[in-house]
Design brief:
The protein has about 475 residues and is an alpha/beta fold. It is built from 13 helices and 17 strands. It folds into two domains: about 270 residues, Alanine racemase (TIM Barrel, Alpha-Beta Barrel); about 110 residues, Lyase, Ornithine Decarboxylase, Chain A, domain 1, CATH 2.40.37. Helix 5 links the parallel strand 4 and strand 5. Belongs to the DSD1 family.
């Protein structure tokens, strides 16, 4: 296989890491470390696939949150007839997915990769090389600007001519037009004066695949109603784009919507009695008659404190419906393993120094509480009080952070405090899973479904590096 630039970011040996860690308890590994609970991420992933199947829509899995081949495979499931469709935010993600994509091609499983943001012009030659190794239309880009598309097509034609000189055919690369449905990051508004010309230019090129929306501002929501409203607004936004584009309805046109709060809010449509359910079902049914609809999401297998704060779906399972997983701290599949390194009892409130700071936990705040992580009820805190951001607000949180270390602060009344000693190992739920994982080269994998061994390392998943 052709050498790709991802080889500039060499990864550690999986075999060596497995020899070092598999079979060890988390109590016996160095800190900080980032831990994934395989049982939890499997449940969260299966729930997403089940709800999409019940709704009759496709699913496209974003891999930027975890950047691992193992979890990417879990996200798309084992059904060889179901598409293995992915979204990436970096080319190194796409290049590391390539071997799995080629496996899918070899067995006839449909598969594709979508570069999920407007791509840098300097990265296009690398994208073209990747596309040349996959079937036509298995590689896709996002465009939201006429000038950017003009530069892209010019570079593509130059690359195609180079291949032609070698008696090789260039592979078709699909184009999604990104619609700004209110996030105001990337995307063009369907009401923009430039919209019609952009659609015509892309469709005339023969590469048009559909419209794409990322409802990123759904992270700011605080209720099931807001998450459902966001999902409906995304669908309406792409319906408006179809209408204003003057394109004839066609099931070859894909409408791709989602962000973890809105995509997972679809689970509520089988549980809730809200009027939003009828509204959602009506617009989805209407769009499915004329277009191919797909959902996309990324952090949903891992979850984090940010996602729990959205309250996008119930925190408890309302029955035994398939395709439903509660949205609560117990469903967060990623934690950071830390260790108490010093104790400060003389301060105005109890504080502890831990072996993880911003490089392990990230610096993003969370709207639901004043900290950078919440200590879970496991390991050294198994008998202690757990901070409840929606209740008494009492317990240990990461109240302050430096680069390499953090300060655990005891919030609330000191009665009932769980006094922790030096060397105590703790697991912390981070605010943002994507950022918390970025400082580590691999994840230690445990499985809470293994009775009596929930904290034993069962695997090691290497995290892709670079861009």
């Amino acid at each position: 296989m052709e050498t790709l630039p991802s080889s500039n970011y060499p990864l550690p040996s999986v075999a060596s890491l497995q020899l070092q860690y598999i079979g060890k308890s988390l109590l016996n590994v160095p800190t900080p470390a980032v831990v994934i609970d395989r049982a939890v991420v499997k449940r969260n992933s299966i729930a997403m696939l089940q709800v999409c199947s019940k709704l009759g829509v496709n699913f496209r899995a974003h891999v930027k949150s975890h950047k691992t081949l193992e979890l990417a495979k879990i996200q798309v499931g084992n059904d060889m007839k179901a598409p293995a469709d992915f979204v990436v935010s970096t080319l190194v993600e796409a290049e590391n997915l390539l071997p799995f994509m080629l496996e899918c091609v070899a067995i006839g499983r449909p598969c594709s990769i979508l570069y999920g943001v407007p791509i840098s012009q300097s990265c296009l030659p690398r994208l073209f090389r990747l596309a040349s190794l996959l079937p036509s239309s298995a590689t896709n880009i996002i465009i939201d600007n006429f000038t950017a598309f003009h530069h892209y097509t010019a570079q593509y034609h130059t690359f195609a001519q180079t291949l032609s000189a070698k008696n090789l055919a260039a592979k078709e690369i699909g184009t999604f037009i990104k619609i700004d449905t209110g996030y105001n990051r990337a995307g063009i508004k369907a009401t923009s004066p430039a919209f019609s010309d952009l659609v015509k230019t892309v469709t005339d090129s023969g590469s048009f695949k559909g419209f794409y929306s990322h409802y990123g501002h759904s992270y700011a929501g605080s209720s099931e109603e807001e998450a459902a409203t966001g999902l409906i607004e995304e669908l309406r936004g792409l319906e408006e784009a179809c209408s204003l584009s003057t394109l004839s309805p066609s099931t070859s046109i894909c409408l791709s919507v989602g962000a973890t709060p809105t995509a997972t809010a679809a689970q509520n449509m089988f549980l809730s009695t809200s009027p939003k359910v009828a509204e959602f079902n009506e617009i989805l049914a209407r769009l499915k008659k004329s277009y191919k609809v797909e959902f996309h999401a990324g952090v949903y297998p891992l979850l984090d404190m940010q996602q729990v704060a959205t309250k996008a779906r119930p925190s408890a399972n309302a029955g035994k419906q398939s395709g439903f997983e509660p949205l609560s701290k117990s469903n967060i599949g990623i934690k950071v393993l830390v260790e108490v390194t010093s104790i400060y009892t003389e301060r105005s409130k109890p504080e502890l120094l831990i072996s993880a700071g911003s490089l392990a936990l990230g610096r993003e705040p969370c709207k639901s509480y004043p900290g950078w992580g919440v200590v879970s009820p496991e390991l050294g805190n198994a008998k202690g009080i757990v901070y409840d951001e929606g209740g008494e607000k009492q317990g240990w949180i990461v109240g302050r952070i430096s680069q390499e270390h953090g300060i655990l602060t005891w919030e609330g009344e000191s009665r009932g405090i769980n006094e922790l000693g030096i060397g105590t190992k703790l697991l912390v739920w981070p605010n943002h899973a994507c950022v918390a994982g970025a400082g580590f080269g691999w994840y230690l994998v445990v499985d809470s479904d293994v009775e009596g061994h929930a904290y034993d390392v069962v695997d090691v998943w290497v995290r892709w590096r670079g861009w």
